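Input.
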Amino acid sequence: MKNLKTYFITGIVVLLPLAASFYVLAYLFKILDGMSADVISIALGKRIPGLGVVLTLFIVLLVGFLATNIIGRTLIGISEKIMYRIPIARSIYRTVKQIVDSFYQGDKKSFKKVVLVEYPRRDMYSLGFLTGDTKGEAHYKTGEELLSVFIPTTPNPTSGYLLLVPRRDVIILE
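Output.
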């Protein structure tokens, strides 16, 4: 009986990540395919599964290409000004933009290194992610070089705390 319980729990531990990954990928495929499949079906007269994903990926690449040149950046600036004038859209756009910018900043990744900091109190350590140097008012008011450290929370590691920690108190891990 004990072996049966061990096999069952081990099976769940192995299958759960696989099933969740399959479910998320299938859902993502369905969304991407549905985004442009209707346009393709109108143009071609029939629905071709998977062609919507290809068209969506092409559009994303095209927008990325346009956003990396001067004309594209100008268009993005204009569209951002428009989004910031629409009351509800402004809140949604700003929030999503901050989240995306925190994970990716230009050519450098935001979560550069894993660090150890004393948090929530002395002699108690938490793992965090170094997100960058802190400049501006916080730096000038404290008179110290501060580092931004993101401490994820459990059970949802996408939320957490952003700490401004003096460089001398941050232990960078390998």
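The longest strand covers residues 125-134.
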